[in-house]
Design goal:
about 190 residues; 2 domains; 8 strands; mainly beta; eight-stranded antiparallel β-barrel
């Protein structure tokens, strides 16, 4: 009887010790080795863009040489702080759009993404709606090795189309763009 209670007590103590060791192992694992589901990424951005006929069949980030080549620059605010944006894409209107996006923090750290989406045709007031996905592919500084994705919704408005290539001149089409972005991004060391 005494021998049985000692064995039972030893078994309980050994089990508790193993549980404590397992808990310590989880807590002490370096953050980089733990699975990172990412931090929420939400933001709104405005941009000005210039679109030209893609006569040179340029492509960006492995995309197709679509009908228009677009360069856009802008800024906004996100859950990761203030970010400026630089976008190069090709697009068919209406239709697919594909390109490379760089978001830059005020300190110079960059977050890179591949930009894929679809844009509809203009409504009666010359606004086009678009939507798509940003796939984060890395960056610099705190965004180095960033991964994840975000969905975007956009509204585009062409300004002075009659004075652009659409109106028969060789000037680029000027566009205003408004983006809303939501997703998640995994950052090194879980930095935000």
């Amino acid at each position: 009887m005494l021998r049985n209670s000692v064995s039972r007590r030893n078994l309980i103590l050994i089990s508790l010790g193993l549980l404590v060791l397992a808990a310590m192992a989880v807590v002490l694992v370096p953050k980089g080795a733990q699975a990172d589901a990412g931090v929420p990424f939400k933001g709104t951005f405005t941009a000005a863009a210039s679109a030209n006929l893609n006569t040179g069949n340029v492509t960006y980030c492995g995309g197709a040489p679509l009908g228009l080549a677009v360069e856009a620059h802008g800024a906004g605010h996100s859950s990761l702080g203030a970010l400026s944006l630089s976008l190069q894409k090709t697009i068919d209107v209406p239709g697919p759009m594909h390109g490379c996006l760089i978001l830059t923090a005020p300190n110079g750290d960059t977050l890179n993404a591949t930009y894929d989406g679809t844009e509809g045709g203009p409504n009666n007031n010359n606004f086009n709606a678009g939507s798509g996905t940003l796939t984060f592919t890395g960056g610099t500084g705190r965004f180095r090795d960033a991964r994840g994705s975000a969905q975007f919704a956009a509204v585009f408005s062409s300004t002075y189309p009659a004075s652009s290539f659409i109106g028969g001149t060789d000037a680029p089409l000027q566009v205003m763009a408004f983006y809303s972005v939501e997703g998640a991004v995994s950052l090194q060391n879980g930095d935000q």
